[in-house]
């Protein structure tokens, strides 16, 4: 699934490719991609004649801003946009085509068919699902150390599922939560209410840094996306923890471990990200030693 940096790259690239283009008509061949309005005919009818002003991102959603309308699109697992000349053969699994007055087309292809599109009048999108309940934008100006602490510091939830919850912070998926926690030196099973001031600061810096670097890497690869078929999608970053189970930690050399937290595959360095005390006691199947007693030595 694309994460925030990939979606940011898709939005920047799309903005370069389609801003200023005017839609003549829209072909919908898989109606269930369109959630709003419920009738694809209504969807296509509303879009005809609209000029695209910009393509922006909110969380992992793409916002296509037009004269009077906003198209909110989520790629889910494998959704992809590409811009093609209209005489180029349409690939299979292309479900929505936006035809432009200049003879080009924006095509939406989605092999898994999980992607969604919602059409709103401008402004309406902020007060309705799916954008109305989204949390802090981690690359936005409102995301400060203070807003991060205010949002999360009283929660007794483990850091991993908490950071994945889009109601608090948007756009952090499995990959970048693992990367940010690794960089901050925090175990994913720590609960938010146990973090000290210095740890909040490290977590804040790590979130901004990991996402910022990934967006930069994506930005620098925009050219190669525009070339060829003009198709955009995911790209690989240099990741330090995610997907590196069994490899040595690049900081200390300890083997990166993979395990499951909240149902999600999770990667940590057991030395750089020490386990919370309670969790280690539970795992060893023993109670913590009562105060004052001394360990028995055999
Ligand atoms: Zn390490």
UniProtKB/TrEMBL annotation:
Q: What is an example of a GO molecular function annotated in this UniProt entry?
A: oxidized purine nucleobase lesion DNA N-glycosylase activity
Q: Name one Pfam family in it.
A: H2TH
Q: So which cofactors does this thing need?
A: Zn(2+)
Where in the numbering of this chain does the Formamidopyrimidine-DNA glycosylase catalytic domain appear?
A: 2-115
EC code: 3.2.2.23, 4.2.99.18
Looking up Gene3D superfamilies in the UniProt record yields: 1.10.8.50, MutM-like, N-terminal
Q: Which residues hold DNA?
A: 93, 112, 155
Q: Where is the active site?
A: 2-3, 60, 264
Q: Which InterPro entries would you find in this protein's record?
A: DNA_glyclase_Znf_dom_DNA_BS, FPG_cat, FPG_Glyclase, FPG_N, H2TH_FPG, Ribosomal_uS13-like_H2TH, Znf_DNA_glyclase/AP_lyase, Znf_FPG/IleRS
FPG-type domain boundaries? 240-274
Q: Which UniProt keywords apply?
A: DNA damage, DNA repair, DNA-binding, Glycosidase, Hydrolase, Lyase, Metal-binding, Multifunctional enzyme, Zinc, Zinc-finger
Similarity comment text for this entry = Belongs to the FPG family.
Quaternary state and interactors? Monomer.
Function of the protein: Involved in base excision repair of DNA damaged by oxidation or by mutagenic agents. Acts as DNA glycosylase that recognizes and removes damaged bases. Has a preference for oxidized purines, such as 7,8-dihydro-8-oxoguanine (8-oxoG). Has AP (apurinic/apyrimidinic) lyase activity and introduces nicks in the DNA strand. Cleaves the DNA backbone by beta-delta elimination to generate a single-strand break at the site of the removed base with both 3'- and 5'-phosphates.
NCBIfam families in the record, alphabetically? Answer: fpg, PRK01103.1
- Protein name as catalogued: Formamidopyrimidine-DNA glycosylase
């Amino acid at each position: 699934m694309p994460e925030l940096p990939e979606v940011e790259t898709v939005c920047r690239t799309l903005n370069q490719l389609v801003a200023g283009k005017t839609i003549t008509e829209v072909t919908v061949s898989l109606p269930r991609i369109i959630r709003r309005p419920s009738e694809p005919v209504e969807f296509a009818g509303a879009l005809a004649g609209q000029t695209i002003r910009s393509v922006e991102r909110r969380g992992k959603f793409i916002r296509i801003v037009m004269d009077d309308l906003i198209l909110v699109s989520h790629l889910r697992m494998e959704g992809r946009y590409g811009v093609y000349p209209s005489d180029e053969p349409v690939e299979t699994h292309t479900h929505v085509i936006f035809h432009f007055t200049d003879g080009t087309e924006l095509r939406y292809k989605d092999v898994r068919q999980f992607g969604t599109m919602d059409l709103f009048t401008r402004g309406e999108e902020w007060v309705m699902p799916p954008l109305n309940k989204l949390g802090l934008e981690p690359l936005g100006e409102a995301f400060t150390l203070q807003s991060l602490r205010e949002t999360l510091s009283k929660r007794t939830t483990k850091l991993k599922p908490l950071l994945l919850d889009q109601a608090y912070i948007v756009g952090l998926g499995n990959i970048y939560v693992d990367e940010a926690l690794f960089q901050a030196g925090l175990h994913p099973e720590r609960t938010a209410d146990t973090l000290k001031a210095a740890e909040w600061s490290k977590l804040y810096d790590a979130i901004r840094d990991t996402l910022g670097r990934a967006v930069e890497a994506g930005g620098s690869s925009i050219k190669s996306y525009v070339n060829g078929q003009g198709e955009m999608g995911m790209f690989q970053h240099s990741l330090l923890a995610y997907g590196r189970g069994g490899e040595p930690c690049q900081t200390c050399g300890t083997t990166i471990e993979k395990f499951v937290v909240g149902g999600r595959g999770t990667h940590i360095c057991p030395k750089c990200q020490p386990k919370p005390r309670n969790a280690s006691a539970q795992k060893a199947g023993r109670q913590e030693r009562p105060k004052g007693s001394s360990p028995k030595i055999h």
